[in-house]
Amino acid sequence: MSTNNKAMVGIIMGSDSDLSVMQAAADFLQSMQIPFELTIVSAHRTPQRMMDYANTAKARGLQVIIAGAGGAAHLPGMIASTTTIPVIGVPIKSTNSIDGWDSILSILQMPNGVPVATVALNAAKNAAILAAQIIALQNTSIAEKLVAYKQTMQQEVTKKIIDTKKKWNNEFDK
Ligand code: AIR
Fold first, then answer.
1. What is 9-138's CATH number, 3.40.50.1970, 3.60.15.10, 3.10.180.10, 3.30.200.20?
2. 73 neighbors 92 (Cβ within 8 angstroms)
3. For ligand 1, is residue 45 a contact (CB within 6 Å)?
4. Counting C-beta atoms within 10 Å of the first and last residue's C-beta, which end of the chain has fewer, N or C?
5. CA 16 to ligand 1 centroid distance, Å
């Protein structure tokens, strides 16, 4: 848990072996001071825990769930089937993944009626940014932090453009 406040975001993953990827989501939420909880929930190994997690999420105050899994990655979709809280899925190229596509397609190809917002392979940070953006719709302080984050990103690229121009000139950046 990032702070002592009540969690707004739930980060769940199929195994502790996913943590090296999912850590990026926790790090971003922490940097934005968004309270979150993080735990292991496996669709296949702990199916009852998965149902209990989804069924209690709303009452516990969660606004978004970030769910990561690898291989036959059914966790995000099954959580989405059980709650109306938005679910962001993180496909993980795990040890048992063929090449990552197994996880991507398992999370992405949901049937009509049960959406999962799927980010790129291992893109746990993007999942956290999207979660923050959803929460920011109703939270001015988080919205302001996101604006600052985007400005910083732009400044970093601007610096790289200037550095690049020192060696590689272009007509566009006069
Ligand atoms: N997994 C665990 N339960 C269901 C699934 N799909 C996934 C985990 C992890 C992969 O299986 O999300 O990416 C390998 O898990 P482990 O525990 O064998 O390292």
1. 3.40.50.1970
2. yes
3. yes
4. C
5. 8
Amino acid (one-letter) located at 34: I
* Residue-wise pLDDT tens digits, 66-125: 999 999 999 999 999 999 999 999 999 998 899 999 999 999 999 999 999 999 999 999
CB within 8 A of 69, min separation 6: which ones? 13, 14, 15, 18, 42, 43, 75, 76, 89, 90, 91, 92, 94, 103, 106, 107
Helical packing angle, 124-136 and 140-167, nearest 10°: 130
Distance CA 92, CA 22 (A): 9
From the CB of 50, is ligand 1 less than 6 Å away? no
Nearest CA to ligand 1 atom 9: 70
43 lines ligand 1 (CB under 6 A): yes
- How many contiguous H segments (helices) and E segments (strands) does the chain have? 6, 5
